Amino acid sequence: MTGQTTPILEVDDISLRFGGVRALSNVSFNVNKGELFSIIGPNGAGKTSLLNCVSGRYSPQEGSIKFKGQEVTKMTPNHRAELGMGRTFQNLALFAHMSVLDNIMVGRHHLMKNNFLSGGIYWFGGAQKEELIHRREAEDIIDFLEISHIRKSVAGTLSYGLRKRVELARAVALRPDLILLDEPMAGMNLEEKEDMARYIVDLNEEWGMTVIMIEHDMGVVMDISERVMVLDFGKNIAEGLPHEIMSNDYVKRAYLGEEDDADENASDEVA
């Protein structure tokens, strides 16, 4: 989906410290509604720390974060989820003892309106009807992600690639306006990566979700992203279209480990 001019997320000059360690330094960027925006950088660059600030797991010491025009810097993750922000994690965070369907249903709990009392009179109140509605939504997501064959399987018994897909399903179950994906393709084989990339693009283009993705596979990032931001040592060192990022000499040195012509000539002379 082509990014519109209205930012759904505005990150302004945020800094994050852990004791004397500065994880993020004055990072600013906007993500437009409907955009597929990727964040790349070397290990330890601060990518997950940045996503944790956006989702509310961390609170930056300086700066502000606005989501859909609302200040959310000090807001809890639950409140941000209620506003329409979902995420997956770098390390799987599924309920391993629960079925795939039940894990996805957990992702819809913010959308459930019935309270304890109505649950207690389940067969006479609206709780049964509501549960059926949420189950239909969960089944739609299961069909979309092509995991019908494992819908009743216990999550902890699945392969790593399938568990990553189930975690995506649980995040999608919230029907978020903005979904944060932390290395959704880590540990996957080529076929699994191709499937996951297709699902992410479809979520963006067909389901209308704005996507912020951290990913190390540069081929995938450059193929599906509309814009890319590069972090290095907690700082935003570049931001732009994929081809602009690929041709940025500073990015090549910091992220891709390439030398510029002057460095190469100097190396040749030393040799």
From TrEMBL:
Pfam families: ABC_tran, BCA_ABC_TP_C. GO terms for molecular function: ATP binding; ATP hydrolysis activity. GO terms for cellular component: plasma membrane. Residues 9-258 form the ABC transporter domain. Gene3D superfamilies: P-loop containing nucleotide triphosphate hydrolases (3.40.50.300). It comes from the Bacteria. Keywords: ATP-binding, Nucleotide-binding, Transport. The keyword Nucleotide-binding applies. This is ABC transporter ATP-binding protein. It comes from Terasakiella brassicae. The lineage of its organism: Bacteria, Pseudomonadati, Pseudomonadota, Alphaproteobacteria, Rhodospirillales.
